[in-house]
Each structure stands twice: as C-alpha cells, then as structure tokens.
Amino acid sequence: MSDGAKARLAEEANDGVIAFRGVHYTLPSGQVLLRDINLTVQRGETLVLLGRSGAGKTTALKLINRLLEPTAGELQVDGRATLAWNPIELRRHIGYVIQETGLFPHYTVAENVALVPRLERKSAPHVRARVEELLALVGLDPARYLDRYPHELSGGQRQRVGVARALAADPPILLMDEPFGALDPLTRAEVREEFQAVQKRLGKTIVIVTHDTSEALLLGSRIALFEAGEIRGIYSPREFMASSEPVAAAYREQLRRLDEFERGT
Amino acid sequence: MNVVQYFERHPDEILQATVEHIWLVGIAMLIAVAIGVPLGILVARRPWLSKAILGGANIAETIPSLALFGFLLPVPWLGDRAARLAIAALALYALLPIIRNTAAGIASVDPAVREAARGMGMTERQILFKVELPLSLSTVLAGVRVATVLTIGIATIAAAVGAGGLGEYIFRGLAMVNNSLILAGAIPAALLALAADFFLSVLERWLRPAR
C-alpha cells in the first residue's frame, strides 16, 4: 500500500464516527449472521441499513452499541474499539430507538424521557427543562403528555416518546431499529417527516435499520444494502437508483410497481 | 360447651394464640421472602441453576409437614427452641411459590423493555431494581400470597413441637375428642388465612403494572 493510500485510510478512520473493520458475527451454533462487514459512518450523516428480514442489519446495529460483540474483526466508535469502551459509557453516548419502543410501562412519559439524564445524575430542574424541550421537539405538548403512561398513548405518540428518550442525554450518535415499522402508513409518514425536521436541526450521526425502500431513499444520505449477512453495496440515494446490483434492482422494482399502481397504469 | 361459648369465655387466650400464630407466620414469611426473591432472581438469570434450586424447593414442599418438624428437631441451634424450629420449617414451605413467582415475573418482562434498558446504558443492577423487579412486583406478591395462606394452615401443626399458635387448640381438641376445642383453633386460623388472602390480593392488584 502506498503512503498516500495509507494516509487516506487513516483519514477515513479519523473521520468516521463509526467504523466496521472486517466484522464477522457468528452464533455459537455456527450460523453466520454477518460476514466481513466494512463500513464507515461519517459524522453527521444518516446511514440506512436496508435489507430483508434476517439480512443481518439489526445484528450490525446492535454491534455498534455493544449489545452484541463481534466474533471477528473490529468496530470503532469515535476512533476507539467498542471492546475498549466501558459498555455502559458507550451506550450512554449513543441514543437507541427500537420498533416496539421499549418504553417502561411503569414510568410516565416524563420519567421515560428523563431516564438517561437521571442515570447521569443531572439536576432535577435541568432534567425537567430538557424533557419539556424534547417533547416539544418531537411534537408532543409537554403540558398534556408529561404525566401520562405509555399505555395511554397511541402507537405514533409512543414512537415519538421513544425518540425523545433516545435524544435526552444529547448523544452524538443515534441508532434506530425500524423506528417507524409498527405504525400505520399515515402516522408513519407523519412521524417520519417530523423526524426529518429533527434530523436537520440536530445534525446527529444516525444509523437507521429498515426494510422499506422508500424510507431508505427518503431518510438516508447513504444506503448500505444488506443481503444474507453481507453488504452488497453502499450507495447515495441517487447511486442506488442507478445501481446494476441485482438486489438493489429488486428493491427498485418494488418501488416502480408501487409507483405504477399509484399512477394507475 | 359449644364453640361460641368457648370463644366467649376465653377471648384473651384465643387472642394470644392468634397473635402467636401471626408472629410465627410473619417471621417465617419475612425469612422466606428474603431468601426466595434472590433465589428467584438467580433462577431467572441462570437457567442452569433453576433445576437445582426449584428441585430443592420442590422436595422441601413434598415432605409431610409433621415429618419436617420432626426432622429439624435434632438440628443444633434450630432445635433448641420450638418457635425457632417452627419458623424454619414454615419458611422452607413458603420458599417454592415465592421462588417460582419471582422467576416467572422477571421472565415475563417484555424483552423490548429489557433491550431498551440495556441499549440506553443501564447497568445490570439498575435493570434489575428499576425495571425487572418493579414490573414483576405483583407476580412476586401473588407468590407471597399463596405462600402465606399455605403457611397459616401448616403453622397449626407447629403446636406439635410446642411452638404454640392456634394449633394448640386443635391438638388439645383432638386429644380430648372435643370438637369445640378443635374449632376454637380452626376457625381463627381459617379467618386469618382469608384475611391474609384478601389483604394481599388487594395490594397485588394495586401494584399490578398497567398494560
């Protein structure tokens, strides 16, 4: 490798907030879930992991906040191997939103959102102000929702609370696993649009898992296409539309059909 | 003399036996909860230990109560005082429902909630005390309720080793073939069990997490 190439590689490593370096993940049973994943997520970008169920995208996401540990290769967050991080510190550095939201049913909305700041022992008035700010940010009126319990909310509202909770400690990185997957199509579009606005305002580094092509194109600055535990390609939305990769083409075909149907042809 | 007359003539004596009974059961339950809940957590956390722990508690449960009191009699310290012995035996009986319900309660916590808790950087201890235990409280309490009702009944047998309680009347009544005397012990014991069941089920409902 030339010095120039080495320098570029080093630069890439420095720039990347999250870096997968030859990452494998194999179950104890021998089943390979991820094979040789190489991927760099740049600061402030929104990377979408697109793929069908079982393609390994959720596994890849959980490797980032060390809910899982790679069986080979290395992952870096902020230039440091995830295994060198204290896992608790690492996870508090990264916001995490999952499809079922995982809101604590015995906590009110306010208590759910305040969870991480409280764990970090932030002062009560500071936390209170932060919670109200975040609820307003995700489009929920704090006065109305602060003291409600998750079971008193609709699916869309729960999802917003989940996003607010993930943002509470102001983590520079946000991981989202099918964040809009459990919502009905209309609510989904609505929450997604609001999320886009939040994304523009906050400039976080975001990794989103989805199996929805239109969502990937809408939200992603880049799209990593997963298939059977491997990355088939990493594209900008424009490149994705032009790619000759058969899997990408299959996803586009799904979009085209939908489009045709909408136009009534 | 019928049982009503007996109650009328010896209210203090019966009250004292009832208090003794409550005391035996109360202390035994405190010990059983103090041991059973941690063991239940262990069962939920380490499935490979669950066979040994649940198996052990199961065996304790199957020993006839009269025999268990007898077995514990020669144990050093424990056998020294009748009440001590009775409390140990009762706590042993109360263990199984408490262990089982604690483990079941923790196992029933929504995996998404647990995953979110881990993903947000809660420590194992925080997950246990702030999430898993609060969410399984009503299930744990259901185990405590079953164990309490069971123990109130079994505690009558503690009188056989001289530990006192309402069983005194039952054994005396059996020896004297006097039904009134038997009922003088049996009725308060049954009422005690019903009261404990009612009180604990109210508490349980109050603590049940909303869905």
How much of the sequence lies in strands of chain B comes to under 5%
Write down the secondary-structure element order of chain A.
Answer: HEEEHEEHEHHHHHEHEHEEHH
Helical stretch tally of chain B:
10
Average pLDDT, all residues of chain A: 87
Radius of gyration of chain A: 19 Å
Q: List unreliable stretches of 5+ residues of chain A.
A: none
Q: Roughly what percent helix of chain A?
A: 40-55%
Main pleated sheet of chain B: none
The most extensive contact between chains is:
A-B, 28 and 20 residues
Number of helices of chain A: 12
| Cα radius of gyration of chain B in angstroms | 20 Å
Low-confidence stretches of chain B: none
Major sheet description of chain A: 6 strands, mixed
Overall outline of chain A: globular
Mean pLDDT of chain B: 90
By oligomeric state, this entry counts as: heterodimer
Q: Please state how the strands of the largest beta sheet of chain A are arranged side by side.
A: 6-7-8-3-9-10
| DSSP strand tally of chain B | 0
Q: Identify the overall geometry of chain B.
A: elongated
Describe this structure in words.
The complex is a heterodimer of chains A (265) and B (211). Chain A is of the alpha/beta class. Chain A is built from twelve helices and ten strands. Chain A has helices at residues 3-15, 57-64, 87-92, 109-113, 115-119, 124-137, 142-145, 155-167, 185-202, 213-219, 237-242, 246-263, and strands spanning 16-26, 32-42, 46-50, 72-77, 80-81, 94-98, 173-177, 205-210, 222-227, 230-235. Chain A has a six-stranded mixed β-sheet, sandwiched between helices. Chain A has a four-stranded antiparallel β-sheet with strand order 2-1-4-5. In chain A, strand 7, helix 9 (185-202) and strand 8 (205-210) form a beta-alpha-beta unit. Chain B contains ten helices and no strands. In chain B, helix 2 (11-45) packs across helix 6 (82-107) and helix 8 runs antiparallel to helix 10 (179-207). The model of chain B has no long low-confidence stretch (mean pLDDT 90). The chains are: A alpha/beta (265), B mainly alpha (211).
